[in-house]
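dumping this here so i dont lose it again. seq + smiles for zinc ion
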Amino acid sequence: MHWDQVSQMVTEAVEANFDQQIAETQKLIRIPSLRGCEGEGQDFVENAFRRLGLTIDRWEINTEELKQSRNYGVPDPDAGPQENVVGTYRPTAEKGRSLILNGHIDVVPVGPLEQWEMDPWSGSASAEWIYGRGAGDMKAGLVANMFALQAIFDAGLRPRSTVILQSVVEEESTGNGANAALQRGYSADAALISEPEDDALVRANTGVLWLTLRVTGQPAHPRIMTDGSNAIEYAFEVLQSLKSLEEQWNSQSGSHEHFEGVPRPINFNLGKISGGDWASSVPGWCELSLRISTFPGVSPEEALAEVRAHVAEFNRDSRYQVSVEPSGFFADGYVLDPGGDAESLLAQCHRHVAGSELETITTPGYLDASLFVNHADVPTLVYGPYTENIHSFDERVSIESLKQCTKTIALFAAFWCGVEPAEARDE
Ligand SMILES: [Zn+2]
């Protein structure tokens, strides 16, 4: 079918369904799918996939099985069972290129509630924004994937190849959800992940590791404080020293393609701290939860070894012991090779919808695309709507941008897979 005809039919269907798309996005935001509590969110997704007529595959991810795989992330022992949901559309005969539309159901913690102006779980909307934890990262994208496929159906068309919709867990902490989907055999000729990327395409991202740095010292009564060794204070010395390693890694930006102009691509974030027992004892222990990043091409094993070597000098002081253990993400970075067919088509669809060229960006954070690219060699486009305050207070997604991205994704799916009139399906 002709480009103009298909693009008009599909974008009109996105337009016609858009009020409903906003309403569904709001409903999903109202379900607090925090880590370990994804079940109700996945129920919502499963029902939506069923309404699309997809074949459902819902399973509990088995982290024991993932242990042997590259980039296995040490799970949270308290997270409990976590399930992925996949919905598959299969044509009667494969005539086009297959596609995965992926999103993650998990959202990050809300932080102190009193710093939110909006209730993080209200899913409230203004004329311009939809608000809430996960609004941008990435429930808007997850629902957009469904409405992209819905638009193709509502235009009276059917994809000529397999389309796999995925809602995975653990994107914000280990990547084990997407890894489990790959291990289960899901692959395709291309994948698109509708993460909040401000209407741009991700060219490259960093690898990410979660590390727990544990310091043990010697507890003592403060009246003989010098007999003790303060694990918390020592942990800060170690942290300060790690900042020099962070600087050293950042100084190599120029030698990593796609990172040359990116300010501070490498970030060591102290995200959580615990230690000591109360104010009147010299603390004998301290744990720092660190998130560090790496350039593509630097393996997580190499990065971990370098961090361990760096902190080893702090073990020379016999009053303390310092250890570093993986405690979550153990991910490689990736680069999307420029100029592939998928990228060219996305650029064409974006230009058609937005009236501007598709920009490419480097994201100094983790993306599940890393697993698709590095494990299965699937060209993976990370492209999604404009957002503000993700992982912060009053997270919000732009409604106009969401509509534009949904149209672009729908067109991309239609032209990547190829479409035919619904009645021609069984010919
Ligand atoms: Zn995300």
